[in-house]
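Sequence in, structure out.
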Amino acid sequence: MTVITQPQQQPQVITKPRRRKTTRRAQQKAQSGSLVLSSLKASLVGGVCILLLMLISLIPLQFLACLVIPGFLVAWLSTGMLAGIFAGDRVKNSYQGGKVGWMAGFWAGIYGGVIAMILAAVGVSVLGIPIVNFGQGIVSQISPDWLVSLESIHITADVIALMGRVFGMFIMVGIIGSLISGLFSSIGGMIYPKLSS
């Protein structure tokens, strides 16, 4: 009698490479990067629109002043929609459109704030805000003793008025304006997927 013994085979453990997770993460990073890029492109266009509207507001004609505020609303909504157009198929729902629109509008508002601060430094009142009087109002509230001590370190009343004007525009147009711009642009971004479908 012969006994045939077969060698026992060890069970083999097959591990699957984790390419799917890394591929998905890489795709998500690429998609978010392209969304940021498309929102930055749209924000440049929105910033140019805001610059043009600010320059139009400097023209001393009454009927143009009635067009500036609706012009800002149209520019903000269009910036959000333009961000959705630049993002293309990557914006699938209103949430993603609102997100892309928010980024574009916020950065367009920042550009507008920088422009307003530059115009305030020159001494130009932007959007009908009496910013020149704002700087002089700050100087008038400083006591004469403080002015003498500040002038000893070469800070004159004109420099204080300039800093007051620029800081006032930073708060009013830079911070508050960029938040309002982001809000309306996010609405425009939310509208875009509904119009495109």
